[in-house]
Amino acid sequence: MHCFFIKLPLFISLLVLLQHLICCESIAKVPDKLASEIPEYASGRIVDSIEIDNRNVFEVKGSRLRRFVFQLANRLHWKTRENVIRREVLFTVGEPFPVELAEETTRNLRNFLQLYDAWIETDTLTNGNLLVRVVTVDEWTLSIGPGFSREGNKSNFDLTASDRNLFGLNKYLLLGYAFQDMDDDYFSGQFINQRFFGRSVSIDTRYSDNPAERIKKLAVYRPFYNLKQKSTWDIIWGSSDNRQDIYNDSMLIGQYRSKTENFTLRFGRRFGSYHRKLMLSWMYIYNFEKAFDTVTISNNQQDIEMVASALSHDSVYHVLGARVIAANLNFAKLRQIDGIQYTEDFALGQTVDLTVGRAFLPGFRDHVWDRIDVRLSQGYRFLNNLAYITYSSELWFRSNENLRKLTSLSLYYYSYQMDFVTFASHSSYYSDWRSDETEGVSLGGENGIRGYGTHFKTGNRRAVFNAELRFFPKLEILSAIFSPAVFIDGGRTWKQNEELSWRDFYFSGGIGLRTGIGHSSRDRIIRVDLTFSEYNRWQLSIGFKQYFEVRGTSLLLTTY
Fold this sequence. Notes:
Largest sheet: 21 strands, antiparallel
Strand content: over 45%
Structural class: mainly beta
CATH superfamily of the largest domain: membrane protein fhac: a member of the omp85/tpsb transporter family
Number of helices: 5
Oligomer: single chain
Helix content: under 10%
CATH topology of the largest domain: Porin
Radius of gyration: 25 Å
CATH architecture of the largest domain: Beta Barrel
Low-confidence stretches: 1-25, 553-560
């Protein structure tokens, strides 16, 4: 889970306090209405000029002391540069004002740049043409300090330094050191440049010596920057040294390490209209995997057999594959779904995603397995309700023998009938069938039900239900926005060959508080939940986002 404590420098923490003492309206202003809807009269008028109004985090006005404090804060922040914003504008001077492209421009700015909000204002000039103003408000991106997270029965503490908008160029740099109470400490670092030398190419480099997952990664890729873009490609190299923990319910029965190295080359081409898309892509993957350092902890014969079955097999293979995605999409702007106050963007509609691949042994003379993946997604918005349903099935097989099958069905439902409360729910069923009868599914605090240990129950199938009432009383103290919540979780797992029964579920419930800190981080909140369960009584669940959220399910075709 992510850290729950937003790591602001001590200066910024004092700044927030001073803001409250001096004046409570120091954050740069954003429009009251939802992302400032573009007026109807603007459609079709000729664009005379485009101005960029890139605002800093704090609004500077008022008394001399107040101006000094917030001017100093803004100087410590790298404001997003005008050219970084202008290159994301999808329309040009001299052409009729396109409302759809203007909406996509602000949507991309809000989601792909480190901004608290973005909107477009228009003024009609005396000649009838439009002056278009792209307005952005930065969020605080520098993060230096300690962090803490706790979920299930694990606590982690870390010290990190990061900036998500390095030099105002929308570059990401992270350096961190984590202290773990149940494992070795480790260092991690990451650098992302979404526009390498200002071009439509991204790079992502990552390193971590986490004892559970040591990672090295270098990716150079051209994602979809907008809906009109036709082609995409990826070149990715990575290596990892992972520790695989094997559990039988809450008991650790064995461990082994798995060393992998892989290389991916992928190219895709997209066709269709603005809202209806068909994408075809082809891929090549090289994969090397080796298992070593096997340890059996339990003396139980059944557990020993389970550990032996769970070991990955040493392998080297090449994968050739193809993918087809068909989508019919439209977009919506909402508030108070997974976030607090700011504008949230959602892609609605239907998506059908089919991938096929074959893994060959070196020399391409024989194959290891074939794979078929099917994913279906549907997003709805009706009245004051939002719903997403997703289904996926992944099958590995060779000739007439099934090797592994993953099945997932999820439903997210939100009802925002009243301004001060949102009902949020998530239901899912997940199955991981393996021919060797090993168990790869866990139920616990990190995967579906708060108030229980990480591997409270194991099996090869899992069902989970979560429901929350998220309240928005517009309570703001020291620029922190508070959102109380009440919740209930339920779930269970099934063992291999165990009959599917909907009885004997485990439940937990409690109260929580979500906190947003002004403009310090648009899409992250501090979540603290006090959970009661029959097995563990009272337990804290702490995270850096909602326990469940639909954000990752939203069907965006831009993958910036």
